[in-house]
Every structure is written in structure tokens, then in C-alpha cells.
Amino acid sequence: MGIRLSPLGVAVFCLLGVGVIYHLYAGVISSRLAFFSSSSERQRRTVDLRDLLAVSVEAAVLGGKEVKTVREENGLQEKSKGKTREGASEPLTMGDLQSHRKMFNLLRNTFPDVTVNSEEHDSVVDKAAAWSRVIPQDIQDKIKGDSNVPAESVTVWIDPLDATQEYTENLVKYVTTMVCVAVDGKPIIGVIHQPFTGYTAWAYVGQGSNIRHRSSYSVSPPKVIVSRSHSGKVKSFIQDAFGNSTAIIGAGGAGYKVLALLETPSKAGAIDQADVYVHITFIKKWDICAGAAILNALGGHMTTLKGEDIDYSGEPVNKGGLVASVTVDHKALLERLPNWDPEKH
Predict the structure, then answer these.
(1) Is 260 exposed, middle or buried, given 0-12, 13-18 or 19+ CB atoms closer than 10 A?
(2) For FRET with 106, which of 9, 146, 161, 249 sits at 20 to 30 Å CA-CA?
């Protein structure tokens, strides 16, 4: 006996079939869209470190132009941010702010998924700040592309004006602008730019640099470079470690002090030469991260006074002091240091 469907039944059956096919098709399309969306998201959240190096150089140079212009036009508009733990005043100038605006906005606009920490804070947003897409020739020559890392693993530290105190005193040889790229807390890319000479040092750990260490260093005793404005008890500390005849150089700016450990071209001006850089109190990570990356790329070290690696993620303060050197026995230097706890001084 055959089954006969009424015209209404046929219509219902057809509608049901069309509905099933539609849902199956919609599911496939939805699945494919989700896949492509996910792939796009993964690609968007990946950063090419060579690009980030190029942008970091561009940001440091742009910030440096602001620093130089403000100083030359005597438009500092200096005020105080407060005092350091040692009681020294921390000045803030229009040079700091203008440089910050250029550097911070350029980096954030180019890499919106990357964490960018700056010494300064400002509400001015410049959505038009954009990377030129130019990779300097020396970076093209020395650094291969496609060095991709997850954006969430990257922290960028910028110092829009290192050595602000010296900047206000017109001791401009100490002034630098700096950018550092840390991956999983390790300093990988460092840029130190001198606004008043136009010299820029950069390095990328494991890839290359445009600066190198000197051919020789002395450690018996070494020439030690320290902060001129936040020295605390560092001179007696160093004499206890290396002897009373140790030459101690007071200088401004952590960026300058790292350059003093290296071989710099005549374009960089008259930079002091030192064998070791020591700091025995708290110091901010935007002050030291770029120098740490450059030293690491050249086989050097920047550690706490206890020889610990400094983690360049999380909070901005390094509370362990620091010792920086290159091509010397860093461990032997550390063993000569007296017992010292920066948190108690």
C-alpha cells in the first residue's frame, strides 16, 4: 500500500528540507568565518621585532627633536614631579612631555596590542602619529625580518628624556632618549639616542648592533661611572669594593653611562670612558632597559648588586641596584662588592 502526501504535506516537507540545508550551510559559513577571524586575530597579535626596532629608532629620534627644540628655544617650563627616595628633586620640563607625546603615540598607534610604559604620563592623544614604514639601511643589512613574537609577550619601555636634571642645567651631553623592547621580561632591543649630537646606538640581542665594545677594559682597579645627582653613598661603596685609588666618574643619565662603557664614534661627542657602571639605590626600568639590551647584545651584563637578572615586566622599579659591564668577568666584579641592601638606604 503506497503513501500519498497531500499538497500541504509536500509543501511542509520541502520547507523542512530547505531549513535543514540552510542551517547546515549557515553552520559551515559561520565555522569558516570564525576560522578566518581567528587566523586574522592571531596574525594581528603577532609583532615582527625588526619592525619594532625600526619604529623604536624612529620614536627615539622624533622624541629627541622635541627635546632639542625645547632646550634651544628655552621653553622648558620646569616644574617638580616630587623628590626621589634620596631627597633629590625630580624635575619635569616641556621637553619631557613633548618627547613623550611623540614617542608614546607613535609606538602605541603602530603596535596597539603591545604594552608601552613611559616615564611620563599625559592625556594628549595623537591618533595621526604613524610610522613612516622606513627601515633604516643599517637595520636591513644586519637584521633579518620575520622575527615574530606574540604581542602579549612584549613590553616596551620608553624614557622620553633621560637626565632631566642635567637638561635643565644645559649639560646636554648627558641627555638621551631611549626605547627598550623586552620579550617575556628579557631586554631584547635597545635604542639610545643623543638629541644634541644626532647619534643613535641600537642593538638587537642575537641579531646585531651598530655599536661595539672597546678593545680593552681595566678592573684592577676599574674606572667606575656613577650618578652625579643620585649618588647616595656610592663613592664609599665603590672604594670599599675596589680600593681608595679607584677612579670614580660622576655623570648624568643612565643611557650616557652605558655609552661610556662602549666604543662610540666621534659623532657621539666627548663621552667619558668607564669600565663599570654601578648604581646602589632604586632605579626605574625605563632608565636602564635599553642599556641592558645593548650590553646583552654585546656579550655584557647588567644585573642587580646580587647578580640577579632584572625582570623588565611588571612594576617599573628595580629595587636591587645594578652593576653593568662588558667583556670582563662580571661574576668576579660582583664578588668584590660589599654587602648592601638598596631597600634599606
Answers:
(1) buried
(2) 146
